[in-house]
Amino acid sequence: xxxxxxxxxxxxxxxxxxxxxxxxxxxxxxxxxxxxxxxxxxxxxxxxxxxxxxxxxxxxxxxxxxxxxxxxxxxxxxxxxxxxxxxxxxxxxxxxxxxxxxxxxxxxxxxxxxxxxxxxxxxxxxxxxxxxxxxxxxxxxxxxxxxxxxxxxxxxxxxxxxxxxxxxxxxxxxxxxxxxxxxxxxxxxxxxxxxxxxxxxxxxxxxxxxxxxxxxxxxxxxxxxxxxxxxx
Length: 232
What we know:
about 230 residues
């Protein structure tokens, strides 16, 4: 994402300054902030969403000068909920799962490491500011607790909802079989993504009865390597 944003910065140098300003200051930004604040009560999450929306808007401004893959990366946070240019309806669930399993079998190197890092972030609760990984207070650190947006809590909550929904609908056996297939297809090389692959596949399997944002939260570790919208 950072590499694509560097490309975006270069393209914006030749863009109309008044248009750039319209997406970064003034009344239009205030309108976007108001809309986001209605949906997100957490101020840190709302600030992150506003920044993301501004980046997307600037990407749209210079889209014709970007490579399609670069623009897709910029637009990805909104691609499923607010479909952008080139949107294609999601493939049937069985096709999405089959596509996910095929790609899991090819996962290696830096992309796999990225999946592992995101998965780790989604499985760990934020530590108090200044706290070491071992759980001790760093010397001289001010004992302030970490506050704000907690991705790990959202991830855990979404997964509990998926499991409960599968049980309520009598899908548990097929649901578990889908998980097992993904866990077998994922690399077993110590990077710790096997269970997360099962979670992502389980979310896709229950896609038709879940809010799409819950599916995307559970798919997130794999989203930058093979975006959810590309599964077919």
